[in-house]
């Protein structure tokens, strides 16, 4: 006897309504992709769940691979037995023995397949009685707060016996909310913002601005490392690497220093918009948090955002830095983010940046800037890379 299945539950509430079918299909496809390296393992949809058949493969790598898949609420190791009371009794005892530390237990039978002749209450007694006898006083029943809760679920195709559950990544299946172009720097915030959007079902393409030789190869590598960490939550990712040196030096020459940062951000947003339109993407996102720095005041956002009417999503807008740092540690990007590097935004960054830049002033200064030519040239010289999935090495929380 051995663990031979994993039962996956998904967020029932989020998946109600007419989108349910397509969400389920997407989730199944994402699960299959996450398990592609576990040869022999099969996943299918059944009775409002997704069932993974292990086919002799050890469950540990499968459990690990499922942890970062968005849209999974929780999942449990399961043993499938025939619809036969004796088989259920032996199965329940096997499951209980997986918890050697348990002093109390409970059997929770559920007869979802009504033609099975024994009802749930009777099954609780028959299975519980067998286990008590087999353990010969080593364990007691506790129906309110058992150390081990053994679920016995009778389905037409067989009975699934489970105990406990792993917490899933929650959220919505990746891809169910469409695509977003995310502005990724090498800092702490933007990878966390990316993760939050992915958790809400948004598939991301990344855009990064770099200014060689002021920003070096290592800075670029660091950003790609962050992308690689994020791919474990959703497979491949396209990265647009935009050369920004020419624009920055041009702005530095043409614009008063107090407006350099504002104009530079406006240029970034214009370029992001062009790439989003080219790729059929409906929104841009970033890691801004209200009031964090001069470029993130309301006045700055008002002036910078003027250049596009594509929605700019800011998942961290109202989050404190400590919370963001906590999340960065949790998702595994923090250690990479804190490595020293030069972001293009810090090159020639004047100390007198306006915290309340005005649209009228920005437009006036831009009269000296070759806005369209420079943006088009940057788009034309953008390098496009695809970063592939890496197997998850995730901490898994076990809920008992
Ligand atoms: P982060 O920690 O994400 O770098 P930050 O607090 O350092 O954020 P800023 O440097 O002001 O803030 O950047 C604000 C946002 O602008 C970033 O979160 C990111 O979305 C975007 N951004 C900044 N620099 C770049 C860059 N070089 N390429 C792409 N996006 C960038
Ligand atoms: Mg930054």
Characterization of the model:
This protein has 400 residues and is an alpha/beta fold. It has two domains: 5-167, VC0802-like (2-Layer Sandwich); 179-399, 3-Layer(aba) Sandwich (Rossmann fold). It is built from 13 helices and 16 strands. The strands form two sheets. Strands 1, 2, 3, 4, 5, 6, 7, 8, 9 and 16 form a ten-stranded mixed beta sheet that branches. A hairpin with a 2-residue loop joins strand 7 and strand 8. Residues 183-185, 187-190, 207-209, 286-288, 292-293, 295, 343-345 line the site of adenosine-5'-triphosphate. Its main location: cytoplasm.
CATH topology of the largest domain: Rossmann fold
The overall number of domains is: 2
| CATH H-level superfamily of the largest domain | HUPs
Net shape: elongated
Total strands: 16
Q: Characterize the biggest β-sheet.
A: 10 strands, mixed
- Beta-strand content bin: 15-25%
State the name of the first-level CATH class of the largest domain: Alpha Beta
Q: What ligands can be seen in this structure? A: adenosine-5'-triphosphate, magnesium ion
Our Rg estimate from Cα atoms comes to 27 Å
Helix content: 25-40%
Secondary structure: elements and pairs:
Blueprint: E1 5-10, H1 20-34, E2 42-46, E3 49-53, H2 59-66, E4 72-81, H3 85-97, E5 104-111, H4 120-135, E6 140-141, E7 148-155, E8 158-163, E9 165-167, E10 179-183, H5 189-199, E11 203-210, H6 217-231, E12 237-243, H7 245-254, H8 257-278, E13 284-285, H9 298-305, E14 312-313, H10 321-331, H11 334-337, H12 359-366, H13 371-380, E15 383-387, E16 398-399
Parallel strand pairs: 5-6, 5-7, 10-11, 10-13, 11-12, 13-14
Antiparallel strand pairs: 1-3, 1-4, 2-3, 4-8, 4-9, 7-8, 9-16, 12-15
This protein binds adenosine-5'-triphosphate and magnesium ion.
The site of magnesium ion has 3 residues, from loops.
GO molecular function: ATP binding; CCA tRNA nucleotidyltransferase activity; tRNA binding; tRNA-uracil-4 sulfurtransferase activity
Binding site for ATP: 183-184, 208-209, 265, 287, 296
Pfam families: ThiI, ThiI_fer, THUMP
